[in-house]
Amino acid sequence: MRTSLNNIFETEQYLTGQLAPEDRLVYDARLIVNTELCDQTHWQQRTYEVVRAYGRMQLRNELEKIHERLMTEPQHNSFRKRILNIFFL
C-alpha cells in the first residue's frame, strides 16, 4: 500500500514538473521499461485533465448564472445600460 502511494506521489511530481532534472530522467527511463508505470502515469494524467475540464465547466456555469442575473434582474438595470453603451455605441 505504501509503495502505491509513493508511486502516485512521484507520478504527480513528474506530471507537474516538480521533479529535479536527474530524477525526471530516471522516471523517463522507468516509463520505458515498466509498462505498468507507463499506464499508471497515463491514467493519472487523464484524471488531471478530466478534473481540470470539470472545474472549467463548473466555473463557466457559475459565470453564466452571474451574467443571467446581471442582465435580467431589475436592480442591475443601470449596470446593464452602462455595459450595453460600452459595446453598442
Task: Please describe the structure with a list of short key phrases separated by commas or semicolons.
0% strand, mainly alpha, 89 residues, 4 helices
Net shape = rod-shaped
Supply the helix-strand structural class. Answer: mainly alpha
SSE arrangement, N to C: HHHH
- The total of helices stands at 4
Low-confidence stretches: none
Mean pLDDT: 93
Radius of gyration: 23 Å
What does the largest sheet look like?
A: none
The CA-CA distance between the termini, in Å, is: 64 Å
Give a count of the beta strands, DSSP E runs of length 2 or more: 0
Which band does the percent of strand residues land in? under 5%
Total individual domains: 1
Query: Can you give the helix content as a percent range?
Result: over 70%
Would you give an account of this structure?
By secondary structure, the chain is mainly alpha-helical. It has one domain (2-87). Helix content is 85%, strand content 0%. The chain has helices at 2-15, 21-33, 35-72, 77-87. Helix 2 packs across helix 3 (35-72). It is rod-shaped, with a radius of gyration of 23 Å. The protein starts with a helix and ends with a helix. The mean pLDDT is 93.
Provide a quick synopsis of the model.
The chain is an all-alpha fold and 89 residues long.
Please specify the SSE layout and strand pairing.
Layout: H1 2-15, H2 21-33, H3 35-72, H4 77-87
